[in-house]
Design goal:
It comes from Chloropicon roscoffensis. InterPro entries: Cyclic-nucl_3Pdiesterase, Cyclic_Pdiesterase. This protein is globular. The N and C termini lie far apart (about 50 Å). By secondary structure, the chain is α+β, with helices and mostly antiparallel strands. The protein is about 30% helix and about 25% strand. The protein has one domain: Cyclic phosphodiesterase (Cyclic Phosphodiesterase, Chain: A).
């Protein structure tokens, strides 16, 4: 009896990144690199996670991408407003800039739209990292504890003040697309296998989805 070919499932996330050549993008990238070096951990591209994490089989990737393009084509560009550095309680949310919900309604609407799209697709297994959406931009991935974590938050605050003339907030950046990243977790705290798959430009002109 011949065995059927085993289907391969991969884990993905949707990201929003500031433009690499923008002032905000370059400042955030530099700050993430500095903090990673100081705390002996991995650096990563600055991003706000739109949705994480979901699994699909390789054969289904194309149809899922078609659905994501549909969401992007009906969504308008918008700005993301970033707050001040805060401490989280997990490795992946050690130090981050929170995106205040009351100032980021368009971001929340886009999250809701892609979530509905993916949850409705039987080919997709959605296992949200956070059941309640808490948009943020991470600055440091680390398992620092207690006072170490608070000290790192203070470092991030000082770096921001140096970039923004004394203001510990990063400001905002414009969103023109969201991106699909393969983000295998595998129970290990590493980003080495993460890779960008594709971007989906926001092309909507009317009301938000």
């Amino acid at each position: 009896m011949m065995m059927g070919k085993q289907k391969h499932r991969r884990q993905y996330s949707l990201w929003i990144r500031p433009q690499e050549k923008s002032e905000v993008g370059e400042n955030l990238h530099g700050m993430i690199n500095i903090l990673a070096t100081r705390h002996n951990t991995e650096a990563f591209d600055p991003h706000v996670t739109l949705l994480s994490v979901f699994e699909i089989e390789d054969d289904d990737l194309e149809s899922v991408e078609d659905s994501l393009r549909g969401v992007a084509s009906s969504s308008r560009p918008f700005d993301i407003v970033l707050g001040s550095p805060e401490c989280g309680s997990s490795f992946w949310q050690c130090i981050f800039l929170l995106c205040p919900l009351q100032r980021n309604a368009e971001l929340v609407r886009l999250h809701d739209a892609v979530r509905r799209c993916l949850v409705a697709d039987p080919k997709v297994e959605v296992s949200l990292a956070n059941k309640t959406y808490m948009p943020h931009l991470s600055l440091l991935y680390s398992d620092l504890v207690g006072g170490e974590r608070e000290s790192a938050r203070g470092e991030a605050e000082e770096l921001l003040k140096g970039q923004a003339g004394g203001d510990a907030r990063c400001g905002s950046f414009q969103v023109g697309e969201f991106e699909l990243y393969e983000t295998p977790m595998g129970g290990t705290n590493t980003t080495k296998a993460w890779r960008r798959v594709r971007g989906y430009p926001l092309r909507g002109q009317g009301a938000q989805v």
